[in-house]
Design goal:
By secondary structure, the protein is an all-alpha fold. The protein has helices at residues 3-48, 67-74, 76-109, 113-128, 131-141, 148-155, 172-197, 201-209, 214-225, 227-242, 246-251, 263-272, 277-301; strands at 53-54, 62-63. Strand 1 and strand 2 (62-63) form a beta hairpin. Helix 3 packs across helix 7 (172-197) and helix 4 crosses helix 7 (172-197).
């Protein structure tokens, strides 16, 4: 091929790539603009301005420097929130990661198409329901005296007296985890199903020829090739659990006391009940930095164990 003709082809290819890139940015520009105006700008103002002010909505913000952050270090409630921001992910992240994977793998192995469709629908359906509405129903299920959960446990002989699921420091966190799995596991289940369907069948065929059993296939082929989906579930679940609001707010109300009160609930109460917007902004800024640091750490660690290119 002549040099001039080759350069012309390369030029056309670069132009086509540039046109595709511009088209892509044009398609995402409306949502990007909405994000910048309503989310990005709010984050910037909160972190770099409101966090350093005394502000109660009724009057103009008053600059107080680092007073809000100093107050945070002396606030006993803030210390409990700091512990909860670690404790909740320790429960929720492993639970969602493992249970979602087990459900997805079991459904993936179902051969009957109708049964597989029914199973997928049943697992994902709670995600569609609004959290507030189903939380009311779960409140009755958790009731100590006439709740269905305690009744079942009594019937099969596991307990003799009713468990105070939402009013005990021992069981409140467990009640949140159970509700969270039922309500949100469908999201992570969906990620796993998509990942399982993208694994080439040739790997399984080769394993069968080599005589590998089901357990060996799962741990030597499925799990390594599903590592990108596992990482994504861990990352999103960790970010979500550190900012958790719905589950403790609707199930336990953050109680008993402040045992299950999260940083998000504390920000809400400080900003919209006590009208201390400046202090709430300082707490939100610290939460943003902590989540960002944990996310950056996860993105760095994933290079050591996540497999992306396997085709």
């Amino acid at each position: 091929m002549k040099k001039g003709k080759r350069q012309k082809i390369e030029s056309l290819g670069q132009r086509h790539t540039r046109q595709e890139t511009i088209s892509g940015y044009l398609f995402i520009s409306p949502l990007l603009l909405i994000f910048i105006v309503f989310t990005g700008a709010s984050i910037f103002i909160t972190i770099f301005y409101l966090a350093f002010t005394k502000y109660n909505i009724m009057s103009s913000p008053e600059w107080v420097g680092l007073n809000n952050f100093t107050r945070m270090l002396q606030d006993p409630a803030a210390r409990q929130m700091a512990w909860n921001i670690i404790r909740l992910p320790l429960y929720l992240v492993p639970a969602h990661t493992v249970v979602g994977l087990l459900f997805a793998y079991m459904v993936y192995k179902i051969k009957n198409r109708f049964l597989k469709y029914l199973s997928r629908t049943a697992i994902y359906f709670p995600v569609v329901a609004t959290t507030a509405s189903v939380a009311v129903a779960w409140g009755f299920l958790y009731n100590r005296d006439f709740g269905a959960i305690n009744w079942i446990l009594k019937t099969i002989g596991i307990i003799e007296t009713g468990i105070p699921w939402t009013n005990s420091t021992q069981y409140a966190i467990i009640s949140i985890v159970i509700f969270s799995i039922w309500k949100f596991i469908g999201i992570h289940f969906l990620y796993y199903i998509i990942g399982l369907q993208n694994i080439p069948e040739t790997y399984y065929e080769a394993a069968k020829i080599d005589g590998a059993n089901e357990l060996q296939v799962f741990f030597k082929i499925t799990l390594p090739l599903l590592s990108s989906s596992v990482f994504y579930v861990i990352l999103t679940c960790m970010i979500g659990s550190m900012q958790c609001f719905d589950e403790p707010f609707f199930i336990t109300g953050g109680g008993p006391g402040v045992n299950t009160k999260t940083v998000a609930i504390y920000i809400y109460e400080t900003a919209f009940q006590s009208y201390e917007m400046g202090y709430a902004s300082a707490i939100a800024a610290v939460l943003f930095v902590v989540v960002f640091m944990f996310t950056a750490l996860q993105l760095w660690l994933q290079k050591k164990w996540v497999i992306y290119d396997y085709e």
